[in-house]
Design goal:
Mean pLDDT: 89
Strand order of the largest sheet: 2-3-4-1-5-8-7-6
CATH superfamily of the largest domain: 2,3-Dihydroxybiphenyl 1,2-Dioxygenase, domain 1
Structural class: alpha+beta
CATH architecture of the largest domain: Roll
Shape: globular
Largest sheet: 8 strands, mixed
Strand content: 35-45%
């Protein structure tokens, strides 16, 4: 793994408002904002202005956010996942395989339009993991 897990907050259409709130509270910076409409990924038109991915940073405080994606439901307790940036295809495949054995797959292991291999799995104890391996030559 490249570093410690990164908190990833999911909101039901209020990610932009939440980011502005955190910006005011923590006096940090919002970066890398991408909406569903801007992504090279088919989504319903009603999600076009919703945030697909954004980052927040203030000193050592760092987290990522998005609005809910298609069939996902947001309730307090399941709106936070931990994102892992992994070092190799082997590492992501291994973790995905072990987590899904007793867990629930939210997004199948797959290549993505952002140049990574990705999967999202809720483990046997309810923790949601975003597994990401950036392929060589991709930038984020």
């Amino acid at each position: 793994m490249k570093h410690h897990p990164i908190p990833y907050f999911t909101f039901e259409g209020t990610a932009r408002e939440a980011l502005e709130y955190y910006k005011e509270v923590f006096e940090g910076e919002i970066t890398d904002v991408q909406t569903f409409g801007e992504a090279n990924f088919e989504t319903p038109p009603e999600l076009d202005d919703h945030i697909m991915h954004a980052r927040f940073k203030k000193g050592d405080l760092f987290f990522m956010v998005s609005d809910v994606f298609l069939n996902q439901n947001v309730t307090v307790g399941n709106n936070i996942s931990l994102a892992l940036e992994l070092d190799s295809t082997e590492e992501i495949e291994s973790l995905y395989g072990r987590l899904k054995e007793k867990g629930t797959v939210y997004m199948e292991f797959q290549d993505t339009f952002w140049g990574a291999t990705f999967a999202k799995v809720k483990d046997a104890y309810g923790v949601i993991w975003d597994l990401n391996f950036e392929k060589a030559g991709s930038s984020n």
